[in-house]
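Quick one from the shared queue. A colleague (R.T.) flagged Exocyst subunit Exo70 family protein as missing a structural entry in our internal table.

Convert sequence to structure tokens.
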Amino acid sequence: MDPPEPPQLTFESAENIILRWDTTSSEQPRDPTIFDGGDRHEIHQYLDAVDEIQRSLESATLTEPDHQSKAKTAIRIAMARLEDEFRNLLTAHTSPIETDCLVDPNSSFKKHCRTNSSSDGAVLPAESFTDDEGLESRTCVSYRFANRICEIDSIPSDAISDLRSIAERMISAGYLRECVQVCLGVRRACVDAGLVRLGIEKSSIDDIQRMEWENLETMIRWWIRAARVSIRMVFASEKRLCKQIFRDLGSSSIDEFCFVETVKGQALQLFNFAGAISISPRAPEKLFKILDLHDAMSDLLPDIEVVFESELSKMIRVEAAEILSELTEAVRGILTEFENAVLNEPSRVAVPGGTIHPLTRYVMNYMCLITDYKQTLVDLIVSKPELRHSDDPTDVEFEVVEGRTPLASHLIWIIVILQSNLDGKSKHYKDPALAHLFMMNNVHYIVQKAKGFPDLKEMIGVGYLKKLSGKYRQLATSYQRSTWVKVMHCLRDEGLHGSGSFSGVSKSALRERFKSFNATFEEVHKTQAMWLIPDAQLREELRIQISELLIPAYTSFLGRFRSYIESGKHPETFIKYSVEDLEADILDFFEGTSASQQQLRRRSQ
């Protein structure tokens, strides 16, 4: 059987209830607050009293001026009390989301966090808990939900119901501004505390741009995680809370106004960091972190448009879109700066041994990292590179290929200008053979690096890589001509015979020829053992080519003329090398250490 309905309050009894809870009265109330006392009868009685006084004012049943004055006084007292109750309820049930477990998936707090979620449920009742030391109550939910909008009910439903009951009466009595101001004061402080826990601090653009880039890199990683939590959880949950309290009360946009005014400053503060990074001085080393920022903002933008969908929050949507646009321009600008840096890299000191130049390694590693962001960059890089004049013949290799994306064109252009720069650096070698070896090493490295990264290989294209492979083979041939023509010149027959028949070999000329070969090969061996080909396969291929060129020619020359030397005195003075000696010495080439050291190493093995 249902309990009987309470009797209708009279004006006098309603007035007495309100006056009994008058905070300005010298008489102290029985409890500090109505709603925290837990006495639901007391709560309903007070709300009914407010309703009765308000009804009396609106219905014009109070004809006596004295009664009207009493009613107005009672309403003012009631509104002051409800304002306090509203503030106390919000404060009592307000705690920032526990961001340790949100941002750090390995946080010790995570084990305490349990959430109830369905496959598509976006509303999570978050658990409030006390940590191991019995400290403050915190609202916590796992970071894994930050990949989508996830509204958290951080205030219990019964408290929401009480807050809404208070707001309804304050708005009905014309105290909308006071009600909203209380809500803004409490909730702003809560959102502020949440963002501080996330590591979002108030910093000016100048403050951010004065920071060392190494520190900013760490901050960017943290900011991305914090932004996901802020937008998808903190702001989305705040919007839900405002709707729960204010929706359909008074003006249709009270809930949205309260939400926007609560989080607007924090949202703009959050975006301020990304905005400052987007307009910072452009440098190649910044590209990948700015791409991370761009991808994060691009990923968040649809959720920003959902969370801040109203006309009141348009400025926040516009700010986010503008920052994304600025990040896009920053990416394009940095890529251009990188191209300029590659083209104009000023080092003039030749690398020892003709090995791979640090610039080549840097550029190719950079390009491999670029391909990690292939999908983003294909969308962002929409124009072909600006071709700059260069005297390097590699310019002709940059041809327009139908279907090649602008990004692929930029990558090939970077290789072209890298070769142009390297060609200039090769001129610092006094020995033309070493200059050819240097270029061969570097072009070969470019090819192998591209082949080792499927995305880079695909974007550059097999056809262009074949051209580069042909180029380093051509450079290997140029090296051989520069070095071995003079060695092979010592093994020619011309100048060894007298004016008559073959039997008229000039022994003195033959001795000089052997001495010339010995000295020339010894110098080449000594010098080129110090040269370096880092790639073992390329090093072995070039040694084989040298052997195929030298060994048959020396074997033939030795076979034809050995007897003439051995029939004279001290033949070992002239025939210093056996075929086996030459084969062994060729193995010393391009190791980057002296021949004597390599020989000692071979003897010790």
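Residues 103-122, 125-138, 389-397 have pLDDT under 50 and may be disordered.
The first strand starts at residue 123 and ends at 125.
Added to the table.
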